[in-house]
Amino acid sequence: MAKGQTTNNTFTSVEDRELIINRVFNSPCDLVYKAWTDPKHLPHWWGPKGFTITVQEIDVKPGGVWHYVMHGPDGVDYDNKIVYIEVVSPERLVYSHGGGEEDEQFQVTVTFAEQGNRTELTMRMLFKSAAELDKVIKEYGAIEGAKSTLDRLEEQLAKI
After folding, report:
1. CB 9 within 8 A of CB 145
2. Nearest to residue 97, comparing CAs of 70, 134, 73?
3. Is residue 4 assigned to a domain?
4. What's the pLDDT at 100?
5. What are 85-111's pLDDT values in tens digits?
6. How many domains does the structure of the chain reveal?
7. Structural domain of residue 58, as residue ranges?
């Protein structure tokens, strides 16, 4: 894969054990942050196209947990758990994300940078190793999934 690629207004980069996704939304920072943290909005856009989620619990605060099940279009359910490490409204979220097994977890940092009435969102996913990152890219389509998820976020922002 190339060091960086741009498609559909989304820039992606793979650096060692980190996947970086960057996109500018035509919505103010407060709104993008709200869509990312409000349980009323999350189920409508979280996950790649064709996936749905069922939120089991969500508490967006340091130490808080977001537990949800992602339902694939093929009928497979994926248990997910996010534990928030840092929450700075409306600028930054840091969390660990995994399916329950500690060795499968990775850390995510999402920043929301105001650009007038637009928001630059940068999502940095840090894996334990370059091999682990390579696995999620090849086996789970992490890059395509992230782009599709942000497409869905953009659609949701237009409805809020």
Report:
1. no
2. 70
3. no
4. 57
5. 999 999 999 999 986 556 678 999 999
6. 1
7. 12-159
Structure tokens at 61: 């605060």
Whether residue 43 has a cis bond before it, omega within 30° of 0: no
Portion of the chain with pLDDT greater than 70, in percent: 92
What are 3's two structure tokens?
């060091």
pLDDT tier at 10, thresholds 50, 70, 90: confident
* pLDDT value for 102: 61
Q: Following CA atoms 117, 92, 107, 18 in sequence, which dihedral angle do they give, to the nearest 10 degrees?
A: 50
Token pair listed for 84:
């928030």
Q: What CATH number has the domain bearing residue 28?
A: 3.30.530.20
pTM of the model: 0.90
Q: Considering only CA atoms, which of 153, 146, 149 is closest in space to residue 19?
A: 146
Spatial separation of the C-alpha atoms in residues 31 and 107, rounded to whole Å: 24
Q: Which residues of 58-88 are buried (b: 16+ CB within 10 A; e: fewer)?
A: bebeeeeebbbebbeeeeeeeebbbbbeebe
